[in-house]
Specification:
Layout (H helix, E strand, L loop, with lengths): L2 H24 L4 E3 L4 E6 L9 E11 L5 E12 L2 E5 L1 E6 L2 E4 L3 E3 L4 E8 L12 E11 L6 E10 L1 H7 L4 E8 L4 E8 L7 H13 L2 H4 L3
Antiparallel strand pairs: 1-3, 2-3, 2-12, 3-9, 4-5, 4-8, 4-10, 6-7, 6-9, 10-11, 12-13
């Protein structure tokens, strides 16, 4: 075998190893999120003595590179016409377990959590009334100087829903319909003291998918 041929093969092998190492250990990918399967606007179910509203959503966060991303914080901005409100207190977890957001590693394969966003204690409440809404999800990565926009979601509340939301402990649930590529909504009331937001979401989801023949009996 020619020495030059061996040298070329060795260089190619070294190049492939270098590219693999760069993709695996050094390339910094982007933080992404999937379309939230469920979004909730309503009273804070974790503190029943609070009259302030919150925003809840469930989504998958993932990285576009093998290295992954370290998430420092999440927050959402809700806009209605000229009104804008940031929900800056972030908590995440699974049903029955909620952690205060204080950093989260997001791998390439992704992680799926419930995300809760509350208003600051010293901030004014934000009422959910009739209108078109723009929900923007922002993420702050460790080492970055400013948050990045992960997703912008268009939602709407109609007049009848506004009247229902004016009642005590009422909230609105938006379920993602993959066939229609749109959200459909339903208003219901917060469960009695001692039950949590997950029970409310399960109750509302079951009502929204109940067969028409069964629903007519109630």
């Amino acid at each position: 075998m020619s020495p030059w041929f061996s040298f070329i093969i060795s260089c190619l092998a070294l190049l492939v190893s270098g590219v693999t190492a760069w993709l695996t250990f050094f390339k910094k990918g982007k933080l992404m999120m999937t379309q939230p399967t469920v979004i909730f606007f309503g009273p804070d179910g974790s503190r029943f003595d609070s009259s302030k509203n919150k925003i809840y959503l469930r989504t998958l966060l993932y990285s576009t590179a093998k290295k992954g991303n370290v998430l420092e914080s999440l927050h959402v901005s809700l806009q209605r016409n000229e009104s804008k409100q940031n929900f800056s207190i972030w908590g995440y977890g699974e049903r029955g377990s909620l952690n205060i957001g204080s950093g989260l590693y997001v791998p390439q394969e992704g992680i799926s959590y419930d995300h809760h966003f509350l208003l600051p204690e010293d901030g004014a409440d934000f009422k959910f009334i009739e209108g078109s809404y723009k929900l923007i999800v922002y993420a702050k990565l460790v080492g970055s100087t400013a948050p990045i926009e992960l997703s912008t979601i268009q939602l709407a509340i109609n007049h009848n829903q506004e009247l229902q939301l004016a009642e005590p402990n009422a909230g609105i649930l938006f379920n993602w319909g993959p066939d229609q590529q749109a959200y459909y909504s339903h208003v219901d009331k917060k469960p009695p003291k001692g039950e949590d937001i997950d029970q409310l979401i399960e109750l509302m989801a079951n009502k929204s998918i109940r067969p028409a023949s069964e629903a007519s009996d109630h």
